[in-house]
From TrEMBL:
It comes from the Bacteria. Its cofactor is pyridoxal 5'-phosphate. GO terms for molecular function: pyridoxal phosphate binding; transaminase activity. The keyword Aminoacyl-tRNA synthetase does not apply. This is Glutamate-1-semialdehyde 2,1-aminomutase. Belongs to the class-III pyridoxal-phosphate-dependent aminotransferase family.
Amino acid sequence: MAQAIRHGVDWARAQALAARERAAFVARNPASQALAGQAAEHLLFGVPMHWMKDWSTPFALTVAEASGARFSDADGHDYIDFCLGDTGAMFGHAPAPVAQAIACQATRGYTAMLPSPDAAPVAAELARRFGLPFWQFALSASDANRFVLRWLRAATGRDKILVFNGCYHGTVDDVFVDLVDGLPVQRDSLLGQVYALTEHTVVVEFNDLAALEAALAGGDVACVLAEPVMTNIGMVLPQPGYWAAAQQILRRHGTLLVIDETHTISSGPGGYAREHGMAPDALVLGKPIAGGVPCAVYGFSEEVARRVERAKRAAPAGHSGVGTTLSANMFAMAAMRANLEQVMTEQAYAHMFALAAQLADGLRAAIARHGLPWCVTRVGARTEFQFGATAPRNGSEAGAMLDGELEQIIHLYLLNRGLLITPFHNMLLVCPQTGAEDVARLLAVLDACLGELA
């Protein structure tokens, strides 16, 4: 028997709404449907990356053009974008200074396996912003995380790493370990993995200091890899005092702290760690750092950088397993310099913070108006609503709030009215080009959606 009420929603009405919205999407997007049919002839799963099939739509929506806080599709419809490439375009699509830097660099070479004049200024700006003096580059945060784990295992002589239940650090195999009934279990969704990740990866719940202490007591964990705020399973904020106490535990056991700021760069120009007085040993940042051009960075404290250098010098000559041919290419470095110097400014963040506060307040008001047992969390320019009455304290609680079917109904309703939010959860971003009228439009349409559901 179908569930009558689900997360405060009349489920029969929700299913009827979903059918109506799917039909409306098909009717309004014939060009995207035709392009999806053509793509299916030669693209695996019919899309360039398989997860592009996992949106709320009956077929993939084809984007024709994107600029600032907006994009248009193949059928000529315009959208206000609150997804922004799931953070990749957090500072807007095609920011003008980055576009100009790319155009200039396009006639001067793309890659040469040697430094460009942008390399030193970029590293200096990263050191100023994030408080870590030494930096390296990669093409994605996934690669940067892999490289950091490899460096720190070599530098510490320890094999294990620790992650938090429900974490997200890209496609790094080592982190696909969850807690199930209190036991570490490799995620079933990880395709093609043939060795036991649990031999080298320890997993505990976020915000559980006792579990962290116990996990590190053996002295065999090289580093903790963590987002300072969990984001991908639904946002989970650290409890007051958590990171201060956690850092003391790490230092006591000689375990290094790696902070992945790829999503939490929404917190400010120096990320969440700098804004909240944390002192990580290493930091990773990908996605938006070059304005959407593929690029990522990772930095080390001076003490850790020296240990890394010693490990490299002590190793035999040959391929280290760190870095790729296109890492730190001239094209990405030019884009990153322009983005850091001219786009990721204090003024841009102030604008985004004000709009995100307006958005979060409006979401709370709409949820309360319709009597829904949902909550709202904000981290700087990043806002999320979750299907639970109180904010989750760890990955298990956040995971229990997820409802993919309900998310997709809401997302499709918004999309059919020219509004895009992030798939797979209910995350919304604002960028420097987002306006107060855009936020008001989103809130009005979402309010109408909730009125049809509740």
